[in-house]
Design goal:
The complex is a heterodimer of chains A (about 290) and B (about 325). By secondary structure, chain A is mainly α. Chain A has eleven helices and no strands. By secondary structure, chain B is of the alpha/beta class. The chains are: A mainly alpha (about 290), B alpha/beta (about 325). Chains A and B meet through helix 8 and helix 9 of A and helix 2 and helix 3 of B.
Chain lengths: ~290, ~325
């Protein structure tokens, strides 16, 4: 996500730079971006420099409270919580961003094509979306898990397969209103092919909506993964996502509250940051904000 | 007829509505000679824009197009998207009404300018850029290099209309269709754009079809004028002839409603009473009859045919007496 808003030196530099400047004026978004960057940095560095790893139990250090040798304490198997939380952040961010990208890609192409084509094609494509909407998600994931075993990849597939539906609907609606704009007609009068029309003239004009929606999807997906892991359908045992950590922590809520609160704080931090960032991006990328 | 660049025969554009067929264009015949400047005048809803769109096959979905439009002998009515796609922008180009909305806000001027040339002629980026800069200069845009990299919102309305014109010209089309290209602009800018169109016509030898509701604009630039009413051509003549010898009451009404620049202002500017008819419920006779000061019994019976009153001057009216009466 972050790459999309960084100022690029390419030919569209002017617009990106202006958007970037507008984003810089949006305090909450800037703070959110900084926090997110900080979490990403921690998640990448801590497991590398820490003497502990996420999987090896230490039977002499069970349930150590935060502070001392283990900065954030240890869990019931004596594993360093800091390293485990950072691995959790890695997994959760990866799932969140990758699944969002996949769903945005499918959703935008599907929705833009349906909206631009109109008529029967549109009806057909949107009815497929309607049908997929009715597929109950949790049973689907359980069936997939039974068929293919518990795999990390499955979480991506399952979440991606569901979340693109919303984007497709939003994008289709936007495309319908775009289609009647004069510049689309002007581009048609230039004799451009339909593919060119969609890729060059429709999609760039959806960018604002799509990026905002993508930043809003990331936290949803992270929460979803947490939910799946909580149910035991997510990541494998020694590996942890924020969801599994919270789920484990919840079992020891009374005796060792830090096992719940610390991963929960990180999850909240990530989710809130994405929400605020999305908020700021909406303003920054809205062409009406142009001076 | 073979000499005509574009020959339109009995063109009908019909939209199906709940009330029945709506005739947006109703039996229009026009020939366009190479390099000619044809003006099309009419009120809103007279079918002038639909006529232009039909030439590109760009009418809204649901339009039924009948009759014949031949470009250099090639039939365009019912032609496939592939045939039309090759003509659009390359041989027949269009200038849109509102420069504020006719440019994609997310793409640079340069990208939009060169798009057509790269698509139709497979031109390289560098060649297209060279040609685009040349054209920016031709439409009198200062600092073309800088403008090339800018986005539409950084330019004024008049500049954007120049860009839109340059965009239409990039593939050196034979026919330039202009749909009210000056309506959205200030009067001073309007005059500049008209001067530009005239200049370009002389330079490129492209035929231009200019659609407008403003007779004053037509008087400035056109060679020949088509007056449209309710989807039909009611009068057609050379521009001089039309202004001096308007013989259709509707044309006369339009002409009289121009504010005179010299001489005393009339106490009240004459206007044509009433409203254009609903195209879904046209009267059986002359569509203008209900608003016409000269209408008599015959006008209500059958629509008058377009017939010559003088060489090169056609009109569709039964009335033969002198005009000049105000209703």
């Amino acid at each position: 996500m972050n790459a999309a808003i960084l100022p690029r030196p390419a030919r569209a530099a002017g617009q990106w730079r202006q958007s970037w400047e507008r984003l810089c004026r949006h305090r909450p978004a800037l703070v959110a971006l900084a926090l997110l960057g900080f979490v990403v940095l921690l998640a990448l560095l801590v497991p590398l420099v820490s003497p502990y790893d996420y999987a090896t139990p230490d039977w002499d250090e069970l349930y150590q409270p935060p502070g001392g040798g283990h900065l954030l304490g240890t869990d019931g198997l004596g594993r360093d919580l800091l390293v485990r939380v950072m691995w959790g952040c890695r997994i959760s961010l990866l799932v969140g961003i990758a699944a969002s990208l996949v769903s945005v890609l499918i959703g935008v192409l599907w929705g833009a094509t349906a909206g631009y084509a109109g008529g029967t094609t549109d009806s057909l494509m949107m009815r497929i979306v309607d049908i997929l909407y009715t597929v109950p998600f949790i049973p689907l994931v359980i069936v997939l898990t039974v068929l293919f075993g518990r795999s990390f990849l499955l979480v991506f597939v399952a979440i991606g397969a569901v979340s693109w539906l919303d984007i497709a609907r939003i994008v289709r609606g936007q495309t319908l209103s775009l289609k009647n704009r004069e510049f689309i007609e002007a581009a048609r009068a230039l004799g451009l092919s339909n593919t060119t029309m969609i890729v060059r003239h429709v999609v760039p004009n959806l960018l604002g909506v799509v990026i905002i929606y993508a930043t809003l999807t990331v936290p949803t997906v992270i929460l979803f993964e947490a939910f799946l892991s909580f149910l035991g359908l997510g990541v494998h045992a020694p590996l942890a996502s924020l969801g599994t950590l919270i789920s484990d922590g919840a079992n020891h809520m009374k005796s060792h509250p830090y096992l719940l609160t610390i991963p929960a704080v990180f999850l909240t931090l990530i989710v809130c940051s994405f929400s605020y960032l999305g908020d700021g991006l909406r303003d920054a990328l809205d062409p009406r904000e142009q001076r | 007829m073979s000499a005509a660049l574009l020959a339109i025969r009995d063109l009908r554009v019909t939209y199906r509505t709940e009330a029945g067929g709506l005739h947006a264009v109703d039996g229009v015949n026009v020939d366009l000679a190479p390099g000619e400047f044809l003006g099309v005048v009419g009120e809103s809803g007279s079918g002038k824009t639909q006529l232009l769109l039909a030439m590109l096959g760009l009418n809204a979905p649901g339009a039924r197009i009948e009759g014949s439009i031949r470009y250099r002998g090639q039939e365009l009515v019912g032609a496939g998207e592939r045939v039309l796609g090759c003509l659009r922008g390359a041989r027949i180009a269009m200038i849109f009404q509102d420069p504020m909305t006719a440019l994609n806000p997310y793409l640079t001027i340069g990208t939009q300018l060169t798009e057509g040339m790269r698509h139709h002629q497979g031109a390289s980026r560098a060649a297209a850029r060279r040609r685009a800069l040349e054209l920016l200069d031709a439409v009198h845009i200062p600092e073309p290099e800088r403008r090339f990299a800018q986005h539409p919102h950084e330019l004024s309305g008049g500049m954007r209309q120049r860009i839109v014109i340059a965009m239409a010209l990039i593939c050196e089309p034979d026919i330039l269709l202009a749909d009210e290209p000056t309506t959205a602009l200030d009067v001073t800018v309007q005059a500049q754009i008209l001067a530009l169109l005239r200049e370009l016509r002389a330079r490129t030898r492209a035929a231009i079809v200019l659609v407008t509701h403003d007779l004053g604009v037509i008087a400035e630039v056109a060679d020949r004028v088509l007056v449209m009413y309710a989807g039909r051509v009611v009068e057609q003549a050379g521009v001089q002839r039309l202004f001096e010898h308007a013989s259709h009451p509707y044309t006369e009404g339009l002409r009289r409603s121009i504010v005179p620049l010299a001489g005393p202002l009339p106490a009240r500017l004459p206007s044509i009473g009433g409203n254009p008819p609903n195209p879904a419920e046209l009267p059986p006779g002359c569509p203008f009859a209900p608003r016409c000061a000269y209408a008599f019994d015959r006008c209500g019976a059958a629509p008058p045919p377009l017939a010559p009153v003088a060489p090169g001057h056609l009109r569709a009216c039964y009335y033969d007496g002198p005009l000049g009466r105000i209703r």
